[in-house]
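Submission checklist for the structure archive. All mandatory fields must be present; incomplete records are returned to the submitter.

[x] Identifier: U3 small nucleolar RNA-associated protein 15 homolog
[x] Organism: Rhynochetos jubatus
[x] Residue count: 520
[x] Sequence attached
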Amino acid sequence: MATYKPVVVQSFPKLGERITQDTVYWRGYKTPVQIKEFGAVNKIDFSPVPPYNYAVTASSRIHIYGRYSQEPVKTFSRFKDAAYCATYRDDGNLLVAGSEEGSIRLFDISGRAPLRQFDGHTKAVHVVGFLSDKYRIFSGGDDYSSNLWDIPSATEIVSYSEHTDYVRCGCASKVNADVFITGSYDHTVKLFDARTKSSVMTIDHGQPVESVLLFPSGGLLVSAGGRYVKVWDVLKGGQLLVSLKNHHKTVTCLCLNSSGQRLLSGSLDRHVKIYSTTSYKVVHSFNYATSILSLALSPEDETIVVGMTNGVLNVKHRKPEERKEKSQSKRQPAYRTYVKGRTYMPKQEDFCVSKPVKRVLRKYDKLLKSFQSSKALDAVLEPPIRLYTPEVTVAVMQELHRRGTLRSALAGRDEKQINLLLTFVARRVIEPRFTPVLVTVADMITDIYQPVVGQSAIVDRQFLKLQEAIGKEIDYQEELLEVLGMMDTLFATFTKKRATYLEENKSNGLTETIETNTNN
């Protein structure tokens, strides 16, 4: 009796992932370090000066972390309730933060007690920041107001009450020391000039604004709210340049890399998307465990820090390039080490011992070997095989058809098994590599279970889905044939014109030759 031959699963070429320079660059980070905070992380801000420590605002505390430390090097906890939006000044010496009770506190990095306290908001202050002259602070609160404060005298300079809902985000211009921007839940972004008594520009984002970002040049503004990230041209009066909709849930934070060539956005859908600022296409993406509230990139792009709703701080450091060079320079074993002994030929007096190779059969092969067709089909319809290696399922169906037992394997199934079979066939029948086999399977299922159509709503629904899938594929093929016919006509016309042109050139050449000979 001949030995059993396992089912041959046809291998198909896999579509390789497109590796770009951005893919290589953004994958060049180490395994992330997880740090647990006391509450949801609402703001992360890097110091603009070395050693690039970063401030993390969570719950009623502000923690200062060293770039490689997992424990805070300093803590500011002089808040009765939640703290918000701790932001560094450009020189890295001062830190300002808002609070739930409506006051703004200014801290010296070398001390612990606040240097100044600014009172004027009647509700929580969610956004604060320094103007580029370093002597004034802007703020926005849940009392719908946007205020400007003088640091030396700790007094309010001007207050704007133009928003009609909570002010939750803002940024200052690095080019003009009098310009700052705020975004509100009233769907608007307003640009203020400290020299005027009202806003100089209003932009309608269309969704509650969660984050705003101004490019270093001051000409482009990015706003995030809802599922949209929108880029506006400030110099053209707030003209919309592009609207990006790459997230599935609300976008909560924005960030630029050090060169300004990449824009990062974090969302409640647990993803960080990275866009090119020239084409505004997604060049890379990071996936995280839970929803993202805050995001920051260190000044030299060495560290990415992400804050999440569950209070976890995710820190990724770039792999040092020196170690890569050392690992590449490590000496590898010579080629002869790997092939040593492979070409040895036994001599006449040698006694050769062959080690028997034990062939391990898979579950479906064992069932096919014992002629259990129905159980073999059940084995390849299990989720791990059916979902991730459908070529194995189709190969077993093809083997059963070759043996002539496919019909009996498909027959005698209950409602749940028929639903599973039809779902698989309807999903995979449109794939060219599986179509020849699955069309036969679909034909057999229809013949076998036609008498029971109408007895089960679930099975009827799957038959309708199969019919719809095949109908769409036929329409698609007909459209392709029409396009192919058009292309054939165009190619035939082009070939005809080219042949006529060549004939004319040849005839002209012969005429010129004859005329030249006659003249001679």
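[x] Structure attached
Curator remark: The longest strand covers residues 41-46. The CA atoms of residues 147 and 159 lie 4 Å apart.
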